[in-house]
Hints:
By secondary structure, the protein is of the alpha/beta class. It has helices at 2-7, 16-26, 41-48, 60-69, 104-113, 126-132, 141-146, 187-197, 205-209, 216-223, 236-246; strands at residues 12-13, 30-35, 51-57, 76-80, 93-98, 117-125, 150-158, 163-164, 171-178.
Amino acid sequence: MDRARRTLSQNFMVDRHAIDLMVKAAAPRGLVLEPGPGEGALTLALAEAGAQVVGYEVDPRLAGRLASRTRHDPRVDIVRRDFTTVRAPREPFAVVGNIPYAITSAIVDWCLRARALTSATLLTQREYARKRAGDYGRWSLVTVESWPWFGWRLGDTIGRESFRPVPSVDSAVLRIQRRPEPLVGDGRSYQELVALGFGGVGGSVRASLRTRYDGVDSALAAAGVSHDTAVGHVHPDQWITLWERLCR
Length: 248
């Protein structure tokens, strides 16, 4: 059991307050997919809040135990499968989960590719959540690339003492919310712009963009970006302005 927990990066929430914070952040309704439900504490809380929960658990022991525990509950369906291999539903759905640290990026990428996803409320390492939400004043490529379609928000910190076994770091709620309408009209040209900016040519966003685009200096002025700004310090909203000036 201990070996499986280490291999599968399993740290189960045992603090009811932490579970309540997750449910509050998710505001679950309708179909909710849960990666790695484990022992089911969050699963049952989501169901009690009104969600129709489908949990994907790769650990056969845990999957069998939770499926048996919830077999008479029509609000819960437990599937023994790796969440990252699941085909996304065509109907609107949300993802909520205390996800394994080791596959955080894979789960986030899956969520961003799912066309019917309305939101993802994920409990991740606090460091990861802060980076993706720009809490250090820097912005990652993943966040900037997806910004026209998704908002990213850092939620409550969940201390390591809320888990068993106790991990070596604290966690935080990361909320990814699909926008009602995209902020750009041409997603491909926006992502090409961002990819070039993050390409690292010359050490500044200005140097990178000038290799392909005309009018970069006026676009930077309109976005409020100084010429020597490093790419990670350009706010996603400023990227939208750059796209409007350089690609439309």
